[in-house]
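debug: dumping io for the single-chain case to check the tokenizer round-trip. Nothing else runs in this session.
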Amino acid sequence: MTGFEEALLRYISAVDLEKISKVKIGIGGAGGLGSNCAQFLARSGFRKFKIVDFDVVDYSNLNRQFYFSDQVGCMKIEALKENLRLINPLLEVELLPERVDAANIADLFIDCDVVVEAFDSPELKRLVVEQYLNSGKLVVAASGLAGWGNSDRITVRRVKENFYLVGDLVTGIGPDSPPLAPCVTIAAAKQADVILSHVLGPMKGGQSYETTRDD
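debug: decoded output
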């Protein structure tokens, strides 16, 4: 156990930390959503990650993604692994530098308990969700998180038993709605919180995300 995990026990029980540490998280996309969701999960005690992305870090990413200027030009997945292990050196991070497509999607997250959809492309979002929707795994996707202001519009919707969608479902990236850190990281944090709630159950006296289901 690292000093980080020992300190985490001030806030959660050893039983809960053990539950968290056994869950394997698959993340498709290591950009604004994926990189930040990964760091929030790592800070919550999750240890096992599989991250899929083929892109490299660019200066244009630094306004909202969990990377730093000295990592520009590096593969995102390599840089993210490095940053996550600065939080907890015991993390198990499997990296797949691949483009996601219809030919490989079925195998990418087959060994994961949770699938985080964190792509920019609507086609890839749909591909991930359709593949894993009925797999029994928890699937957490996002849509509509660009721009700024009225951040309460970024909500969590329970679509099916194990499928949650984060965002306002409307505000895509465009000239009048750029991808900026506040709303992007709010969405990533909500994705992480759905996963944490799924693993630990609702907080004592608190409400479950079950109450946000759209019937």
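debug: round-trip ok. Strands lie at 24-28, 48-52, 92-96, 114-117, 138-142, 155-160, 163-167.
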